[in-house]
C-alpha cells in the first residue's frame, strides 16, 4: 500500500466527489449523518471566505420535524411535490437554512462592520478607519450596493460560498446534499419570525440545504456544458 498521498490522488478524489454530488431529491429517512461528520460540514461553512471577511450570514439547522413541516407548504423545492416523493424536508438527516444579514448590520453606516473588524478579525485600532473607508467605498462607489435588497443579495452571495463548500465537503465524505431555492422567501421569513424568533429586520432567508444519504440513484443524469463553452482564456 502507498504511504504517501500524491497530488494526482487528491485530484482524483476531488473529481470523484464532484461526480458523486448531485441534487438529491429524497433521502433514506433511516440514515443519519454522524455528529462528527456534520461538525466537519459546519467547520467548512464557518471557515469559508466572505467579502471583507464580514461573515454576513447565519445558518439555522432545523431538526425538529414539526418545525420542518411549517416550511413545507411554500417550500416546493424540498416538499417532494415536484417528483412525487416525501422530499428533502421530510427525509433529510440535517436541514439548513442560510440567512443573509440585512442593512441593519451590513450598511456601512451601522456599527457592525467596524465592530466585527475589531473584535472578530482583531484588526489593530489604527487599521479600523481605513477598513471602514474601504468598505464604504466598495458599497457606494465600486459595487453601488444601495437598496436593502442589494445588501441582502450581497450577503446571500457570501452565504452561497459557504453553501458550495458544505456541499463539496459532504460529497467528499459520501454524504448527499441538495441546495434549495424553491421556497417563497416572504412566507419563509414570516414563519421564521413567528416560530423561530428570527427578526426579519436583521435576517432574510437566502438559501436552504439538505443533507443525508440518497434513497435511490439520481433522478437525473449529470450533464454540463463543455469546458470550452464555459471558459475563455486570454
Ligand atoms: C442555488 C440552487 C438552488 C436550487 N434549488 C433547488 C430546489 O429548490 N430543489 C431541488 O430539488 N433542486 C434545487 N437545485 C438543484 C439544481 O436543480 C441542480 O443542482 C442542477 O439541476 C444540476 O444538477 P446536479 O446538482 O444534480 O448536478 C438548486 C441548485 C442550486 C445551486
UniProtKB/TrEMBL annotation:
Keywords: Flavoprotein, FMN, NADP, Oxidoreductase. GO terms for molecular function: oxidoreductase activity. It comes from the Bacteria. Its cofactor is FMN. The keyword Repeat does not apply. Residues 20-213 form the Nitroreductase domain. Signal peptide: none annotated. Coiled coil: none annotated. Pfam families: Nitroreductase. The keyword Repressor does not apply. Belongs to the nitroreductase family. This is NAD(P)H-dependent oxidoreductase. It comes from Parasedimentitalea huanghaiensis.
